[in-house]
Amino acid sequence: MQPIVSVSNVSFAYQNKQVLRNINLDIYEGETVCLLGPNGCGKTTLLNCIHNTLQIQQGRILICGRDVKTYSITELARLMGYVFQEHNAPFPYTSLEVVRMGRTPHLGFFQSPSEQDTEFAYSIMDELGIAHLAAKRYTNISGGERQLVLIARTLCQEPKIILFDEPTSHLDYKNQALVLHILKKLSQRGITVIMTSHFPNHVWNLGDKVAMIGYSGFVAMGHVEEVMTEEYLSSTYGVNVRIYDVVKNGEIKRFCSPELEL
Amino acid sequence: MKKTNTNIILEPSVSSKKWCLFIVITISIFFVSLFLGRMTISPDTVLKVLGKNLLMLPIEPDWEQSIEIAVMRIRLPRAIIASIVGAGLSMSGAAFQGMFHNPLVSPFILGVSAGASVGAALGLIMEQSLMVVQLLSFCFGILAVVLTYLTAKIYKTTPILMLVLAGTVVSAFFQAMLSLIKFLADTEDKLPAITFWLMGSMGSVSMEDLPFALLPMGISMAALFLVRWRLNVFSMGEQEAKSLGLNTEVLKILIIVCTTLITATSVAFCGVIGWVGLVIPHLCRMLVGPDHKNLIPATILMGATYLLIIDNLSRLLSAAEVPIGILTAVVGAPIFAYLLRKTKGGWN
Questions:
Q1: pLDDT band at B342 (very low <50, low <70, confident <90, very high)
Q2: Which of B4, B125, B156, B196 is deepest in the core (most CB within 10 A)?
Q3: What is the pLDDT of residues B276-303, one digit of tens each?
Q4: What mean pLDDT do residues B106-116 have?
């Protein structure tokens, strides 16, 4: 089977600061892939390279077997959505209007969204359980709600692949749970998810595959059970990480935590 | 049933009743402008003159020739230019505010007014005809924006921040050029002419000029009107807009070309009219919400109404005409201050 996203020998440097070195990564349709790594290791950079926001200087990235650089902006937006980290909107649009912006790649240059597009946007909000936000001003809702609205907007593009940059980073427990739940739903719908995360513990809940990036490049890449080991985690983050198994009510829960003594 | 639901959710504040009201107000103010003037002409005479000349109605003239000239050759072109310039500047302001995702941007941010002023000043100092002055002004306005665009261009992109900075630089340069021309100008007649021209007036536009103003402005306004929904997407920021499949470079060029044609034309014909492009979009946002789909049509109607009122004040306040650039600021600044206080800077 052909991978939907294929990253081969990719290197990237900002001016003279090398960030990514010889990265290889094959992602197949429907997989959920977590990129783990310490601050500044290049997780977001890799995401931006896959999205062609940053042009790679070396190597090749293929999306559906075609070089990402050969796609037009519109073609790419139909295939791939990107949920950015939190941001500020300058104008107080309604949340439904923000979600409806996801229809852009399906409209002609002089076209506005039709009633069907609006219906579609609303149905997606309904599906994600945020229909009650539709009439609310996007600038007046909480950070967690905003994240959900942005996810709905990305789904409105009807993409095959969705990139997430730290989807849970600013969220409290309830909102984290909501977003993780939705991420699971996405993969059940067959959408390929590539996300960066600062929370290795989330990986056991949703990842099919994990890629660990350290400062000097890839540490490990593979299925969750193979890669989420104390050894790999420790060398990725540069601190001793322990994995614990806790049994409660007959259910095993696995989590990891760094040792606080350095 | 669901259909009406989502419509209400999208913009509950704009009903078709509201639109009708806006349109009626604009049209009424337009006609009131034709009724008002130094020469007292009764409204029904004005309507009869219009009916005979524009609609070719078979009306026997029971008025003097001078009345027909006042209505058809002075008041009508003036009211038309005031409405289209008001509409154009407001629309450009709204488009730029969306594009720069900053609600405090005016349509002159890329240097068009500074450039156009230099062009006009050059024409005036060389004692050229009005047409040459207008042409020079138009060309220099465009030149300034081209310089801004080229300065801001890095590789194949023109980041929004670079555009703002480059616009400031180019404006400063042309302002200095203008000062230099004023410094060198004959203080007896040239300097006052330049100063007066810069303060703006609707008075110099004749019926023959109108096509030259209406054509570039009309086409540009139509184009901006068609892409107005994309301004919503653009206002989310360039990177996000791109990820949503919006070709931001193409849209940016389209917006810059259209607004430049609108503003350069309006400065060339009427001088520098500030504040309209800043205040009206805000006022409209309070009336119809931030969605550019409604905002752009609202700015057209409100902008036209506002400048018609201001121009009437300019004609009628005193025996000598008060320059319109002064009035837009005198009226606009307090309105803006009031809006700022009332909304506390957030436009919710």
A1: confident
A2: B125
A3: 999 999 889 888 889 999 999 999 999 9
A4: 94
Sign of torsion over alpha carbons B290, B292, B294, B297:
positive
* Of the partner residues A81, A92, A100, the one whose CB lies closest to the CB of residue B290: A92
Largest CA distance in chain A: 60
B window 243-272, beta carbon within 8 A of A: 243-247, 250
Closest-CA distance, A181 to chain B, in angstroms, reads 24
Residue B230 at interface with chain A, using a CB cutoff of 8 Å: yes
pLDDT, residue B151, reads: 94
Q: pTM value? A: 0.90
Per-residue pLDDT tens for B53-107? 888 888 888 888 899 899 999 999 999 999 999 999 999 999 999 999 888 889 9
Q: Is B290 on the interface with A (CB under 8 A)?
A: yes
Q: Which residues of A touch B227 (CB under 8 A)?
A: 109-110
- B9, B285, B347 member nearest A134 (Cβ): B9
- SS3 string, chain B, reads CHHHHHHHHHCCCCCHHHHHHHHHHHHHHHHHHHHCCCCCCCHHHHHHHHHHHHCCCCCCCCCCHHHHHHHHHHHHHHHHHHHHHHHHHHHHHHHHHHHCCCCCCCCCCCCHHHHHHHHHHHHHHCCCCHHHHHHHHHHHHHHHHHHHHHHHCECCECCHHHHHHHHHHHHHHHHHHHHHHHHHCCCCCHHHHHHHHHHCCCCCCCCCCHHHHHHHHHHHHHHHHHCHHHHHHHCCCHHHHHHCCCCHHHHHHHHHHHHHHHHHHHHHHHCCCCCHHHHHHHHHHHHHCCCHHHHHHHHHHHHHHHHHHHHHHHHHCCCCCCCHHHHHHHHHHHHHHHHHHHHCCCCC
Give the pLDDT band (50/70/90) at residue B3.
Answer: very low
Quickly tell me which residue has 């007896």 as its tokens.
B188
Chain A contact for B348, CB < 8 A? yes
| Angle made by CA atoms A79, A158, A224, in degrees to the nearest 5 | 70
Q: Please, which residues have CB within 8 angstroms of residue B32's CB and are 6 or more apart in sequence?
A: B312
Q: Check residue A88 and give its pLDDT.
A: 72
Structure-token pair, residue B206: 């004749």
Compare A256 and B27 and report the one with higher pLDDT: B27
Closest approach of A117 to chain B, Cα-based (Å): 11
HSE value, Cβ hemisphere, 13 Å, CA-based, for A179: 27
State the pLDDT at residue A197.
87
Among B166, B56, B61, CA closest to B110: B166
Tally of CB atoms within 10 A around B324: 27
Alpha-carbon distance B236 to A230, whole Å? 41
CATH numbers and ranges of domains, chain B: 87-343 (1.10.3470.10)
| Average predicted confidence (pLDDT) for chain B | 90
Whether A105 sits inside 8 A of B346 (CB atoms) is no
ipTM over 0.95 threshold: no
A162 to chain B: nearest residue by CA?
A: B243
